[in-house]
Structure formats: C-alpha cells, structure tokens
Amino acid sequence: MTVNHQKNRAFAKRVVLDAQLCFPLYAASRMVTRLYQPLLDQYGLTYPQYVVLMVLWEQSPRSVSEIGERALLNSNTLTPLLKRLESQGLVTRTRGTRDERVVKIHLTERGAALEEQCACVQQTLSGQVGMDHKKLIALKTSLDEFLVQLRHLAES
Which of 15, 36, 42, 139 is the most exposed place for a label (fewest CB within 10 A)? Predict the structure, then answer.
C-alpha cells in the first residue's frame, strides 16, 4: 500500500471538519446573516423578522403554522417574533372565528410599505459578496434542490 493511499484511508476514517458538508453550510449561513444585520438595522428588523415579513409579502394573511412551515421556524421561536413585529406596528394577529386555535397574521399598511423599502437589501448584499451573478444563481438553485431533499428526509 502506498503512503498516499494510507493517508487517504486514514483521512476517510477520521471526522475532519474540512470533509463535512454541514460546516460550510452552517458557517455560510451565519456569515450571511451577520452581513444582513447592518442592512436590516436601519429598518429595526432582525434577520428572522425579515424572513417572516418576506413570507407575508408573498401572501397575507397567513396562519402562524403556514408562516412557520414556509420559514422553517418552530412556534416557540415564531410566537415571540410575531409579538415583536406586532408591537412595531408591522403585523396584526387575529384569532379564527371558526377555530380560535388558528391565529392569522396580517400585514399592516406600515408592514406592507416596508417591502418597497427593503427591496435594496438583497441587491446590496449580493454586491458586497462580489461573486458572479450566474454563480450565485447556480448556488441558490443547488441549495433549493438540497433543501427539498432534506425536507423529504425530515418528513419520513
């Protein structure tokens, strides 16, 4: 057995950070969120609040469970977040008339108007990253496909 072959076999048996898929995903997520924060500070938003607002900008009203499913947030994270958005005057919460357990989240006029103000956030971040636009689109497409697979695994 050659020395290189022995090294490769030893490398394959060890748990090495550089060989993991999870770490670059985790690190990239944290770094992107960190880059978003100064852009969102001017609107008084955290990144998770921004995600929830993007879900509501797609369609409002939505139930809390619909928002959680779309944003991949648990209700114990989502409930205080929605309360803060409500205290900021960006959303309102109403209980269902047929089923009081269902809480609907509605954008306020102020919350809806914030979409136009936040339109530049994504472009600004893309410009800061400095990667070729086609590469960013390809990365997003690959991550979307990967996320579909992960959701299937989580559902089984």
Answer: 15
- What are the boundaries of each domain within the chain? 34-126
Pairwise CA distance, residues 55 & 48, whole Å: 11
Tally: H helices and E strands in the chain = 7, 3
Nearest Cα neighbor of 102 from 145, 68, 152 is: 68
Architecture of domain 34-126: Orthogonal Bundle (1.10)
Q: What is the pLDDT of residues 59-114, one digit of tens each?
A: 999 999 999 999 999 989 999 999 999 999 999 999 877 877 888 999 999 999 99
Quote the pTM value.
Answer: 0.84
Question: Residues near 125 by Cβ (< 8 Å), separated by ≥ 6?
Answer: 32, 35, 36, 39
Comparing C-alpha atoms, which of 95, 100, 104 is closest to residue 66? 104
